[in-house]
Structures are given as structure tokens and as C-alpha cells.
Amino acid sequence: MHDSNFLKENNARHLWHPMAHPAEMQATPPKVVMAAEGVMLTDVDGHKTLDAVGGLWNVNLGYSCDPVKKAIAEQLEQLPYYSAFRGTSTGPAVELSYMLRKWFAPDGMVRSFFTSGGSDSVETGLRLARQYHKIRGDRDRTKFISLKKGYHGTHFGGASVSGNANFRRNYEPLLPGCFHIPAPYTYRNPFNETDPARLAQFCAQALEDEIVFQGPDTVAAFIMEPVLGAGGVIPPHESFMPMVREICDRHGVLLIADEVITAFGRTGAWTGSRLWGVRPDLMTIAKAITNGYFPFGAVMIGETVAEAFETNADSFGSIGHGYTYSAHPVGCAAALACLPETHKADVASNAAARGAELLAACEGLKAEHSLIGDVRGKGLMVALELVSDRDRKTPVDKKTIGTVFEVAYAEGVMLRVSGPNIILSPPLVITAGDVAKIAAAISAGLAAVA
Ligand code: PMP
Q1: Could you confirm whether domain 31-61+346-449 is CATH 3.30.70.3280?
Q2: Closest Cα partner for 359 from 250, 233, 253, 241?
Q3: ipTM, interface predicted TM-score of the complex
Q4: Ligand 1 atom at minimal distance to the Cα of residue 150
Q5: Burial grade of 157 (CB within 10 A; 0-12, 13-18, 19 or more)
Q6: What are the extents of the domains in the chain?
Q7: What is the CA(180)–ligand 1 centre distance, in A?
Q8: 15, 104, 132, 138: least surrounded by Cβ within 10 Å?
Q9: Which among 57, 154, 261, 271 is the best mutation to test ligand 1's pocket, defined by most ligand atoms within 8 Å of the CB?
Q10: Which ligand 1 atom lies nearest to the CA of residue 230?
Q11: Tens digits of per-residue pLDDT, 99-116?
Q12: 50 - beta bridge partners?
């Protein structure tokens, strides 16, 4: 391996990073992470930081989860690859679909379709939703509705239903027939509504209005994250998703829960849908399913959709969709080892308890630092939205929030900065001491720019 300087210099020269401007890499080189243990990262200079990002919302059990590592190594030895296209399957693929049916039974999910990650899962979910309607003879039900500020990955379908201009503008034209309604985001919304319950009602009404405006017989599905993640951590009022379920049912529209972040305990419940007491028709999962150690995902399929496909006798029911790495046996083995660990360690309860502490600590910081405009969270998904003027809610500039990041990093905590937001999504196994350390590092960062 080359030395620290070689890695830093050549990173800027040769490597294009997701969600980054290639020209920015010289001025603000990324942190080069070389090793990790527990919840701690070590960079190329030997500097250690507590990972308050949890990889990318995915390393829920931390970096030392030996059963998952062992399962991956053993599966590589035994059967490193075989396909699950029509005519073949593998042991781990069958085992995993069997286990997932058990784990997701309370969510009403009865079948699995495997993918290589979140964007693949979203794409699969959108396509299965359209096919479901075609199978049933509703061939005009092709449109999708979603939330502004929602994030559903970067494939063309996912980007089309995503609600952030940064991921859309440069890639247009996107998929036709995708429409967006306001998110239940109390800090900024077109209704000037700060009461979460009333705002939930307005947003739900906007969904119903949009379905009626488009013509219910043209709408295939509504897709939402139970707690919006990448858009800045927006937990809706508890009434929102149940209202959405009811509206979708009334108009024959499928509900796709994008649980790429929220599944496997992050919100304090096994899934975000379960947190809100809702059974979606399709559920997209990925990320923590393998603790981030192997690229993997799935679409979980509810009973209604499964039945439509399985009872269809003609060619409409055949799934003309799939990936070379759908049901990759190593990914399946990783998930099979990861999910019992996730349950055994009862990480969801820890996420709820530590999440409440983290939210309270961030609320405390808001009282001390005028730069914090809003604090939001559910479980171990927390955001601090920074503003340069609290009354006007002016988003902070890139340089200011960049300095907060650097100071916190020097203090020993890796944060994630996204627009004006500091986003916290640490491993679900963190301790109360870790929570205090994260809050102290953010406080130091904010003090440095005050
Ligand atoms: N959906 C949601 C809700 C996500 O948060 C993400 C990734 N952050 C995706 C889809 C896309 O997943 P991936 O990056 O694994 O393709």
C-alpha cells in the first residue's frame, strides 16, 4: 500500500466521488478511511473518529460484527456466485427468503425479490407496481406520486420520484408521469404550518387532491420513506402514514414504503412502517440488511401484490426484470448472519433510547448556539439544520458548515454534512457516552464558527 500523501494526491487526480464535484476534491480532499473497529474509524494519518454517520446509514452493528464477516468468508469458499434467473437458485437465497418472510410477517410482507442495493430496490418496486396494475387490466395506471424532499436513489425511476433538484436537474428529462406533493416538514412548508398534526393533514390532503387531479385510474403508486432521511431527516407526525394508507386504499393506489434507511431498527422499530402501524404493499430495503458489508437489497412484497402475480396465468405475470446480482449468494449469506444479530442485540430498543438522548442533547445545543435553526429526529436518525439568521431561516453557507465538520473531526467525531444539515445516523449499538461525545464535538464545531 502507498503512503498517506500518495493516497491523498491520487484521490483528487483519479477518483470521481458520488455526490461530489470532481473539481472540489483538490481544495477539500476527502478523509481517507483505512480501518475501523467497533464504532471507531481510523484515517490514513492514524487519526481516530467515532462514526456518527454509521457508514452511510447502514453499518448498524458497527465495524466488528464477526458473524457477518465469517458468513461472507465461508460463503465465498463454498459458492462465490450463482444466478437466480429462471431455472436456478441457491441455498442462501432460499434460506433468506424464508427468514425474511418470518421477520417481515408483521409488516404484511410475504415474498422477497433480491437486488444489489437501494436504488435497484426502488427501481424494482416501481416496476412491479406498474406490472401489478397491468396484470389486473388497469393498463393506464402508470403514474407515481411522491414527496418533495424524498430520496429514492439515483436510477432514472428513483431520481424521477425523488424530491431534491440536485439529483434531478442535470439528468432531465426524467421519467414522465411522476408528481410531487409537499413533505410534512414543519420547519419549512408551503402552508406555513408548524403544528405537525395539522401539517400531516394538509400533506395527506395534497396527496388525495393530486390523485384526483391526475385521475385515480392513472396512478400506480405513492412512494414514501416512513421517516425521510437524505432530504434532511423529516419524521412525519404519527398520523401521516396511516392517512396515506387510507387514501391509497380508497383510490386503488399502491403504497410503496422506501425503507432503505428505516428498516432494521433505525427508527426504534423493526421497520418504519411498523413504527407508524401501517402495512405497505411493497417495501424496499437494503443498507443494514448486510450491516453494509456487502452490497445487497430487496423488495418485500405484500400479500395483495403477490397474489395478483401468482394467480395470473398469462405472460403479463412473468417478471421481465432482474439483475445479474439478484440474490447473490454471498449477500444472502451476509444477510442471514446479520439479521439474527440485529434482533439478538435488540438494537431497535437501543436506537430508541440513544436516539431520544441524542435528540435531547441536540435540542440542548440549540439553546446554546444560534446557528441551529431546527433539530429533528426519530430513533437514531437526527438532523440539525443550520441557519445564519434564525428569524429569516437563511441556510448557512458551505464554508461555515464545512468548518463545523472539520472541527468535529479534529475532536474525534465523523459527521455528515448535507446542504445546511448535519445528519447523524450512528451505528445502533452506540452508548450514552458516545452520544455525549457526538454532542460535544458538534458543540465545539459550532463554537468555532460563532
Ligand atoms: N432509498 C432511500 C430511502 C435511500 O436512503 C437510499 C440511499 N441513501 C436509496 C434509496 C438508494 O440506495 P443506494 O444508495 O443503495 O442505491
Answers
A1: no
A2: 233
A3: 0.99
A4: 3
A5: buried
A6: 31-61+346-449, 67-344
A7: 18
A8: 15
A9: 261
A10: 5
A11: 999 999 999 999 999 999
A12: 40, 413
